[in-house]
Amino acid sequence: MSRKVGIYIRVSTQEQAESGISIEAQRSSLYKFCELHGWEVHKEYVDAAKSAATIERKALQELLEDCKNGEIDTVVVFKLDRLSRSLRDLILLMDELKRYGVDFVSVTERIDTTTAAGKLMFHIIGAFAEFEREMTIERTKLAMDKKVKEGSFVGRLPLGYRYDESRRIVLSEDAETVRCVFFDFLETQNVSEVARKHNMSRMQVYRILRNPFYAGIVHWRDVEWRGNHPKIISKRTFEKVQRILNSRKNRSRKSHKVKE
User: What are the catalytic residues?
Assistant: First the structure.
């Protein structure tokens, strides 16, 4: 039986570098598979440097649209996780292909939804793919927890800091600006005035004043840890600023209630 095949290829930059599952490797394998079965490759769809965490990928959405319009009757991928690593997304995609009357084949896992055995294997491998993704997330969280407990920083450095050649956190040329924002606020107790003086928005000033990182504190998953980075202000100064901000916030709430 002649088929109009759409081959789908996806790589992330990390996978291409570490695992060798390159675009060309997938393309070569898929074309050989289709040639062996006498199938015509109608079109190829490539998502380069795209994560499998979401199905909102340009080439994948184009493939689904062509399936809907009857241009493709079989989707072939190198491996199941090229399509998605989420079992829920895989099931939704398979249901969508089924509505369009389109078959699905995974070359590596030998999955073919035209057979009962293929449908069973699809669910089993899909479950393992989701399990592996959840395990990766859990391992990442544990690694980050360990880094934070050791005083390291997780995330983007705030204004006033930079990394040196050894990836240590050091003060940047903006550190003095940050220090001035705190002391100017203590003097004026007026966010708008501080923002005008330093050519910042009120939101930028608030973010600086509310960030405990400047006092040597790392905040992670609702827990505060002592960091090993240099402080820009003392913890005492930071707490004093928080008391002022909180008291102004409470006064604003009371005023709002009176107006109501």
Answer: 12
